[in-house]
Amino acid sequence: MPTVQPGHPAVDTADVSALLERGRTLSTPVLRAAVDRLAPPMDTVAAYHFGWIDAHGNPTDADSGKAVRPALALLSAEAAGVGPEVGIPGAVAVELVHNFSLLHDDLMDGDEQRRHRDTVWKVHGPAQAILVGDALFALANEILLELGTVEAGRATRRLTTASRKLIDGQAQDISYEHRERVTVEECLEMEGNKTGALLACAVSIGAVLGGADDRTADKLEEYGYHLGLAFQAVDDLLGIWGDPEATGKQTWSDLRQRKKSLPVVAALAAGGPASERLQRLLAEDAKSSEFASFTEDDFAYRASLIEEAGGREWTSQEARRQHAVAIEALNEVDMPARVRAQLTALADFVVVRKR
């Protein structure tokens, strides 16, 4: 079943795959060189996280992620009229911050699997997950500031602001797990911080390094922010109904963690019999000491109530709405037609992906 209902423009998957692969190919050597700076065993732990080695230190070609952010950073440079290579330090810096957040999130959420492999804290312990995450965050700023240019300083300011918002979003996400009710507006604010801010930075940082003015960078950030909200809405759908073979996570992943994601929040706000049953059930769950022993049928029933109350359909529509707002922001930026088409194709990819 598609993540977003039919009717959305078809995605040129070959073009998108080429963009993602270019981002990965150009950024990975610089990313590896940055990781090599870390003191042992952090360098090895980070290499495991990125999928370059297995748990025993042997080279591997494990899944290292979708590489959406590096692809955006390189396109960002081209949107400013410079070569994609100008955006490489920005691509690497954003990818380091993104993976800093993943290392910490996996530990805080208790996730044992990411990209079909055991997470770092599961293999190397919580202390290493924290330390390596901190180290990647520091490296991100080093990579930019070593450029020693005015543009690098501007780029670093945008990255640090985005990082702070990302951390705000994670704090909100955790606090919402313990609240009985969260509004749709609160959920969107949290997801804008947690996902939108860094994607916004990714799609402006290459342009800033290329000398773009603040207005151009701000409009690119607007595209990235709303793209991030679309991205997270799709993630929220996959977090409940995604195929574990595609996502690399457990079935009903977000329900197991009691996350107040968009489908849940929208369902609770909808009213009606299914919404009321869901509200009572989740309130009982919050007090239950047996939550960890719930069966697949228990989670499937909660998912069915969310869908019956309209939470799944509302979230699909919100992903499409945020996608449309993102594309509209691109109209405010003067850029080569080819780059505009590629940014549009990446946005389309985000809302129809299955992992």
UniProtKB/TrEMBL annotation:
**Keyword flag GTP-binding:** no
Query: What are the record keywords, sorted?
Result: Magnesium, Metal-binding, Transferase
Signal as a keyword of this entry, yes or no, is no
* CDD domains named among the record's database cross-references: Trans_IPPS_HT
Q: What Enzyme Commission number(s) appear in the record?
A: 2.5.1.1, 2.5.1.10, 2.5.1.29
Q: Which GO terms describe its molecular function?
A: (2E,6E)-farnesyl diphosphate synthase activity; dimethylallyltranstransferase activity; geranylgeranyl diphosphate synthase activity; metal ion binding
Please give the Pfam families that the UniProt record associates with this protein: polyprenyl_synt
Q: Which GO terms describe its biological process?
A: isoprenoid biosynthetic process
Q: What class of enzyme is it?
A: transferase
Q: What's the family?
A: Belongs to the FPP/GGPP synthase family.
Protein's name according to its UniProt entry: Geranylgeranyl diphosphate synthase type I
The source organism is Streptomyces nymphaeiformis
| Lineage of the organism | Bacteria, Bacillati, Actinomycetota, Actinomycetes, Kitasatosporales
